[in-house]
Amino acid sequence: MANKENTILIVDDNSNNLKVVAGVLKGEGYEFRMAKSGAQALSILEISKPDLILLDIQMPEMDGFETCKRIKQNNEFASIPIIFLTANTDAESISKAFKSGGVDFITKPFNSDELLARIATHIQLKTQKEALEYEIKTKNKFFSIISHDLKNPLTTVIGFAELLDTKFDEIDEDKIKKFIHYIHESSKFSVEILEDLLTWSRIQGGTLKSERTKCNLSSLLNSNIEGHIPQAIAKNINLKYDFDQNLPVCADENMISTVIRNLISNAIKFTPMGGEIFVSSKEKIINDIKVIETEISDTGVGMSYEQINKLFKIENNVNSKGTNNETGTGLGLVLCKEFLSQNDGEIRVESELKVGSKFIFNLAVSA
Q1: Exposed e or buried b for every residue in 264-273, given b needs 16+ CB within 10 A?
Q2: Does residue 306 lie in a domain region?
Q3: pLDDT in tens, 217-247
Q4: What is the pTM of this model?
Q5: Same domain, 100 and 75
Q6: Domain that holds residue 160
Q7: In sequence order, which residues have a C-beta less than 8 Å from that of residue 23 and are 6 or more positions away?
Q8: Contacts of 184 (CB under 8 A, 6+ apart)
């Protein structure tokens, strides 16, 4: 049986043909959509992206070749494999089918087993291609972090260490203290990057699994809030919180502590001087399940819809400077999502440019 998540768009102006193909797909477990014209197919694509398209050639107004060309002109749909269903078996039609962007063609009347075999093959090829592209993007992100984000703080360490080594006697005491501070902060940031990279590698290698125990989320929130008070004071940020002191969850304490630390750290990073951060946590019922929902909101720079869609994905380079030129790689949020997923939790974002952001995550209440 097919993967029930696979959806196929059938495009044919003949109602009987649509019914026959739909019957074959339904019997194999595929989801499907139907369109009776090229124009209708394009409209459906705007609201629902299928895994594969079965496309008739001979249709009024816009034939299959033109429909295929228009689909392939849109980068969002260009990767969808298109199989032509046609009674035309002449060399010219077959050539036009491939030149317009089709990956295969099946002649009418078709054999059901052949149709299903070709559909399965092209969906598998699409899946493998997407997996390979993801691996390449992930590798590129790793190289970016190593070559750029890790290089910068190390360059700072080397630069100021060299000044202290070669001109120590010429530098006044205040500058020496400042240089040592820069070296210390850059060294800490370098270690954080390396730790995140190693953690991500362990996750991908399957060697890092959550060890869940019954724990008090309040304790994790309190310790991380206290740990970030110096950074908040440095930017004159009002760090407030409101939650019960007994919030029992079943989770891996280290993983959830990492999530909280990253979210509070990011909130401070992107909140300007004199801003406000508010941490709240309370019990809720979501989809008939009792959860603890935690919200970390700020009055920071906020994000656009496009920026939000790039969060939590390592293949997207979303690192950016904080309001006080703080540095980051974006990898922390990727780890947050992965850690919450390993603890059966979820995370979402609400944000508005120049207003602020809310990062909200939930964990199931411990029995």
Answers
A1: bbbbbbbbee
A2: yes
A3: 999 999 889 988 988 888 999 999 999 999 9
A4: 0.58
A5: yes
A6: 150-204
A7: none
A8: none
